[in-house]
Specification:
- Helix 6 links the parallel strand 8 and strand 9.
- The chain is globular and about 70 Å long.
- Strands 14-15-16-13-12-18-19 form a 7-stranded mixed sheet, with helices on both faces. A 6-stranded mixed sheet has the order 9-8-7-10-11-21, with helices on both faces. A 3-stranded antiparallel sheet has the order 5-6-22, with no helix packed on it.
- It is of the alpha/beta class and about 475 residues long.
- The protein folds into 2 domains: about 280 residues, Aldehyde Dehydrogenase, Chain A, domain 1; about 190 residues, Aldehyde Dehydrogenase, Chain A, domain 2.
């Protein structure tokens, strides 16, 4: 299947710049360790060319009428839909996720891009009463300028596509750097926009060393906005760098999502939702349910049934339709899983299923369940970002809420209960940018996606996601 993997190149000012004369690094298939392709690294000259073309293109693109911007975004999205099988296979090769999950990601990507494309027509200002006779006071919304965006490897189509569509809808140009592990997915999206008629330079894709690229782009006075999705430590560094230029940023950072399961919840339904969501994308999701707090009366049954369901998950090649969980995406996650689980066990935690690598090629890992893990274990404090569920018991709802809010993260939180009063209390009390009551679904492009505390600030999706790429101007006519 590796024959579907695309050639890798820098996409700058409408030109494909190959690896000739550039440093390259291998992109690896996480299932078997095979080399998918060689990724060329952007040079300083490449980045300067991207910055200059983005600045030139912004001056043109910002003047393109909103209906025309919308048409190009929607045409690109239609092309992505036509090519969905190629996209899904590329996602599976790069990330390892099963084809069914890759298809699901592409559906979410298309939905987000369509919504942003349509919303381009609805970027409104307002008029207020002027103080002077015959005067006029107008508040308008204008594109902020060229954007530097950084997307991670776990859901590269969705997190690349929705950044691009929102920025372009607002009238901005964008330079996006995808993860060095998933470059082909971003290039396929860029190709769809080029084929849809997007002017050269409005969208540039640069590949290579993340530290070098991020420092070069964010330090440039050309860049007027930064959008980053990734781990909290990296986000802190990039936010500090952007502050030197007083550049606004949107930060969608890490999480460690708690799940409160009350004794009045429908446990059959909770389990039916929880196990697939926990092990979706091999647990590599910033909103993945991770710390399960289960009330005493249903705890033992919940652990037994969750463990059984996790142990029955089929792990293997994402290209195999019988597989329901693919490999971890890279060796770093494999090492992290082994380290965090060993530390949990050393602190007294118990493994009820899983806990080990599968085989000796690629990055396959068993779906894992941990119980009796004390709160000072690393896995209770550091986001595992892998196929590990930690299940703890609680007695009172107040105790569960306190434990759920204990960490400095606040991206997603979940609760399951059959009580309307408990639902209201939990929705109000959980310190999170997104709260799911009896659901794990946050996949609505019309609703904001973002966190609080050290999970970041700003939102993607919704009108808030496009608003992030706009600035406000007040014009007062006397």
């Amino acid at each position: 299947m590796t024959s579907v993997y695309s050639e890798l190149y820098q996409w700058i000012d409408g030109q494909k710049l190959s690896g000739n004369g550039r440093e390259t690094s291998a992109v690896i298939n996480p299932f078997n360790g095979a080399v998918l392709g060689q990724m060329p690294h952007a040079t300083a000259a490449d980045l300067q060319a991207a910055l200059e073309s983005s600045e030139r293109a912004f001056k043109v693109w910002r003047k393109v009428p909103a209906w025309d911007r919308s048409a190009i975004i929607l045409k690109a999205t239609a092309l992505i839909r036509e090519r969905i099988n190629l996209f899904a296979e590329t996602l599976t090769l790069e990330v390892g996720k099963p084809l069914a999950e890759a298809q699901m990601e592409m559906g979410l990507t298309i939905d987000s891009m369509i919504w942003a494309g349509e919303e381009a027509k609805r970027i409104y200002g307002r008029t207020v009463e002027a103080r002077a006779p015959n005067g006029r006071a107008i508040i308008s919304r204008e594109p902020v300028g060229p954007v530097a965006a950084f997307a991670p490897w776990n859901v590269p189509a969705l997190l690349t596509g929705r950044k691009i569509a929102a920025a372009l809808a607002a009238g901005c140009s964008m330079i996006i750097k995808p993860s060095e592990e998933t470059p082909a997915t971003a290039l396929l999206i860029a190709q769809a926009f080029a084929d849809a008629g997007l002017p050269a330079g409005v969208l540039n894709v640069v590949l290579g060393d993340p530290a070098f690229i991020s420092h070069t782009l964010i330090s440039s006075p050309i860049i007027k906005k930064v959008s980053f999705t990734g781990p909290t430590p990296v986000g802190k560094q990039l936010a500090a760098l952007a502050a030197q230029q007083v550049t606004p940023v949107t930060m969608e950072l890490g999480g460690h999502a708690p799940v409160i399961v009350c004794d009045d919840a429908d446990i059959d339904t909770v389990l039916a939702y929880s196990v697939p969501n926990k092990y979706f994308n091999a647990g590599a999701s910033c909103i993945a349910p991770t710390r399960f707090y289960v009330q005493d009366a249903v705890y033992d049954d919940f652990v037994a049934r969750f463990t059984k369901a996790a142990s029955e998950i089929t792990v293997g090649d994402g290209m195999d339709s019988s597989v329901s969980m693919g490999p971890l995406a890279n060796e770093r996650r494999l090492t992290a899983m082994e380290t965090l689980i060993a530390d949990a066990v050393a602190h007294g935690g118990k493994i009820t299923t899983g806990g080990k690598r599968i085989g000796d090629q690629g990055f396959l890992f068993e779906p894992t369940v941990l119980v009796d893990v004390p709160e000072d274990a690393r896995i209770m404090n550091d986001e595992p970002f892998g196929p590990v569920a930690i299940i703890s018991r609680f007695s009172t709802l107040e105790d569960a809420i306190e434990k759920a809010n204990r960490l400095p993260f606040g991206l997603a939180a979940y609760a399951f209960t059959g009580s309307a009063s408990r639902s209201a209390l939990l929705a109000d009390s959980l310190e999170s940018g997104m709260v799911g009551i009896n659901t794990y679904s946050f996949g609505m492009p019309e609703a904001p996606f973002g966190g609080v505390k050290q999970s970041g600030y700003g939102s993607e999706n919704g009108v808030e996601g496009i608003d992030a790429y706009l600035v406000t101007k007040f014009a007062n006519y006397g």
